[in-house]
Design goal:
Layout lengths: L2 H4 L5 H9 L2 H25 L1 H9 L3 E9 L5 E11 L1 H18 L8 H23 L1 E8 L3 E18 L5 E7 L1 H4 L8 E4 L7 E8 L2 E5 L9 E2 L2 E5 L12 E8 L2 E9 L6 E4 L5 E26 L6 E12 L2 E8 L4 E3 L2 E9 L11 E8 L7 H44 L1
Antiparallel strand pairs: 1-2, 3-4, 3-19, 4-5, 4-14, 6-7, 7-11, 8-10, 9-10, 11-12, 13-14, 14-15, 15-16, 17-18, 18-19
Helix pairs in contact: 3-4, 3-5, 5-6, 6-8
């Protein structure tokens, strides 16, 4: 007996549960998600896919700005924007709404089994979105024919690497300052000091720029900091986030005394060299985050077929060998036919040489690499199949009930027509 039949007032907790599981809340959430998708689509024309996903769908809130063409043809952002709720809280509320209303509070009877299955599958999809946002590593790797690789690099995360050189072409110590600790050190004179007992100095990072270029100090903006006649110039972010080249300034100090300063840039030909007070040589560079593979991938052959009479690729594929100890597996990777092995999936993404590569660059393939958690599995595929199964069950059961009702009505009409005749 619930509070409505017993006459007892509902508790605050029960009212909250009713609200979170209501159809009204679900309707509002879907409307807000629709508006968010519209705003994100408009922003994507100027910002790029990576930033849109991060700012609109992986955040608690977003400020939607408007753009217009600037004097140089580059989009100019408005000084004001529209605040809007982000995809993260909307998806979290939708998960709770479906869990309470579509699984826990729904009437459990044969007629609702299909609905329950579909709701459960949608929860799996939402949970997979959470896992992807927090625990999946994505990147790519370029492999030349005959080359073997056992790593891949992140698309957008650049870590700073500090190395003590031994003078024998060997690295005795390697330390990494992760991207997550540097990205907040933006302009305006912001700084962050990194210390470690294993280093003979401290590293102060200043003015991290997500996309930058090195200029002669005379050609750089007046407010730009100059180091040895050069300066960093911040550039507009690329729509393809993996094309952004970060840069930053570093100040090196030991025991409170300045040891040196420099510019660390993603495309620098050589790392920044630091001489410690003891005379030891250290190098500092920034490069894309590297992930190790548990096996080796060798490109045996790259195949590209063009449309007749053009240089446009009709299809392209990579014949690779996965080498894991004594085990060797030959696989062909092509569009929509990836190599899935353990936690890793390799997709055919691109190829080369491309425009901008040095003359004489040999053929190579570019594979997109996706690393998922060990127990994640193919949740999306499972959820899509079970959503379809639940809907089929629901509609078939509804159709069966409809035919049964029609048959019963027909039998009743026939009985009524026969009664006067018998009388």
């Amino acid at each position: 007996m619930d509070s409505k039949t017993s006459g007892k007032p509902k508790s605050i907790a029960w009212r909250i549960v009713e609200f979170l599981s209501s159809f009204g809340l679900a309707t509002v959430l879907f409307v807000l998600l629709g508006i968010l998708v519209l705003l994100a689509t408009l922003a994507q024309t100027n910002v790029g896919t990576h930033d849109v996903i991060r700012d609109y769908f992986s955040s608690a809130g977003v400020m939607h700005y408007f753009y217009k063409d600037g004097p140089d043809g580059e989009p100019m952002r408005s000084t004001w924007g529209i605040p809007f709720i982000g995809g993260y809280p909307l998806m979290a509320l939708l998960f709770v709404n479906i869990l309470l209303g579509g699984l826990i509070r729904i009437r459990k009877k044969p007629q609702t089994i299909g609905v329950v299955i579909s709701h459960f599958s949608i929860l799996v999809l939402l949970a997979w979105g959470f896992v992807t946002n927090h625990f999946v590593d994505e990147g790519n790797v370029r492999i030349f024919e005959g080359e073997e690789i056992d790593y891949f690099t992140d698309y957008t995360k650049w870590d700073m690497e500090l190395v003590q050189e031994t003078g024998e072409d060997a690295r005795s110590q390697v330390f990494v300052i992760p991207y997550e600790q540097m990205k907040a050190v933006k302009g305006g004179g912001s700084r962050r000091v990194f210390e470690n007992d294993a280093w003979p100095f401290d590293i102060a990072v200043a003015d991290y720029m997500r996309n930058s270029a090195v200029r002669l100090a005379a050609d750089a903006p007046k407010e730009a900091r100059s180091v040895d006649g050069y300066a960093l110039e911040e550039k507009s972010r690329e729509k393809q986030a993996e094309l952004n080249i970060p840069g930053l300034y570093v100040d090196i100090s030991a025991d409170g005394e300045a040891v040196g300063e420099g510019i660390v840039w993603g495309l620098a030909r050589e790392p920044l060299t630091i001489t410690a007070p003891s005379g030891d040589k250290w190098s500092l560079q920034i490069r894309k985050r590297v992930y190790e593979l548990p096996y080796t991938i060798k490109l045996r052959d790259f195949i590209k077929e063009d449309h007749p009479g053009t240089a446009m690729a009709r299809r392209y594929m990579s014949d690779v060998t996965r080498i894991d100890g004594d085990l060797q597996e030959d696989v062909r990777i092509r569009m929509n036919h990836p190599l899935a092995s353990g936690q890793y999936t390799f997709y055919q993404a691109s190829f080369g040489p491309q425009e901008g590569d040095p003359p004489g660059t040999p053929p190579y393939t570019v594979l997109a690499v996706w690393k998922r958690p060990l127990l994640a599995g193919d949740w999306p595929l499972f959820a899509c199949f079970t959503v379809a199964l639940g809907l089929v069950i629901h509609f078939v059961m509804g159709l069966v009930r409809y035919f049964k009702r029609e048959a019963l009505h027909e039998a009743r009409r026939a009985a009524k027509e026969q009664t006067p005749a018998e009388a």
